[in-house]
Amino acid sequence: MPDNLDDVEFLKQHLSGDPSEELLEQIASTVVDRMADSFPELSLKSRPMDEVLEDFGDDKLEEVDSTGQYKRKLNYLRTYLEDEACVETSDDLTSEDVEGYKKWRKYESLSRDEPLARTTLRDDMYLFREFIQYMIEHRMAPARFEKRIEIPEIDYESGEGVDKKKLDPEIAKAALEYLRKYEYAGVEHVSMELMCQSGPRKGGLIGRDVPDFDYEERILQYETQETTPLKNDEGNEREISLYGETPEIIQDYLKNQRPAETDDEGREPLLTKGDGRISASMLQKIAYMWTRPCEVGLGCPHDRDPDDCEAAQKNNSAYKCPSSRAPHHIRTGYITDQKNRGVSADGVQQRCDVSPRVQDLHYDLPDDTEERERFEEEFRNADDDPNSGFNHDQ
């Protein structure tokens, strides 16, 4: 078909109707190629693909906090382009290569038989689109390549893409009891107290400073800072009350165990091990460590021998325990438990900074028994109405 692009009648015939996207792309490519002959500055640049990937990766990793996660995503991108599509230079990349990444990432990039989770695929396709946009911006790929990228849609209303893991209240209780007895008022203990007793976002908790805690008022303030912003900046600023033994535990930590530490901005991070503000990965590690049932005095629900279990023997492998949970799962378990106890959606919104709609979609995840028990009292009161024709006692 490209041979016909010089045929005026051919073009009139096909452009007067509903031309295919393939034809339009071929026409655009031909026009660009011929303009480049006359205007070399418009031609696409050719660079080794490994250099392009290196430069893009360096730029991306400067923008994000979770570098480990993005390094893995970038490695998948490199594997596809260099090993699967065999793209050696930027001008080797074709529209078919661009289209093929989604299928490869979903079905062929993993050793298991199950396809990649839809939410993970969506995130990886966003990154792939950023990469193609980077190439277009630096004149290493034609703009039409971006249209070849399809981002999966997630139907959150139907529950698709919702992480249904949550921390069991029994494990949360056992973890705090164990830490209060054996690891009292250390930074790991304080971190778990605040995660289990207020359900904060990971970034919000990491960003708290010593002055944010008021022992006399028994509150913790959440204020946005330039280097540790809250999710929606000033709109998420709030105070939360601390109950039970938690204020005393934090006070004992500040008096006896917290190192005299300031960060690069001269602020005093509340959670620190003496080497700056505690990191997101460290908070994640603490959560996984102290939600292993065997670590906090509970039996293994998976019939494993702790002496032979890697997740039990190595703290860096704690995440491999099927029962261990990340900070996000502790937050979900906390919110679900508060709703089970009758706390209103508005109350949860004030304390945890999550709207009623998002609570329903992502955080309030009762099992069948919990959901039934929430409404038992309402139906019992209705059954006591003597005027009801459906009264169970009639």
Would you kindly provide a written description of the structure presented here, covering whatever features stand out?
The chain is mainly alpha-helical and 394 residues long. Helices cover 50% and strands 3% of the residues.
- Work out the number of β strands: 3
The CATH architecture name of the largest domain reads: Orthogonal Bundle
User: What is the overall silhouette?
Assistant: globular
CATH class of the largest domain: Mainly Alpha
| Radius of gyration, CA atoms, in whole angstroms | 28 Å
How would you concisely characterize the structure shown here?
50% of the residues lie in helices and 3% in strands. The chain has 394 residues and is mostly helical. The chain starts with 7 loop residues before the first helix and ends in an 11-residue tail after the last helix.
Task: Throw out a few tags for this protein.
3 domains; 50% helix; hpI Integrase, Chain A; 394 residues; DNA polymerase, domain 1; three-stranded antiparallel sheet
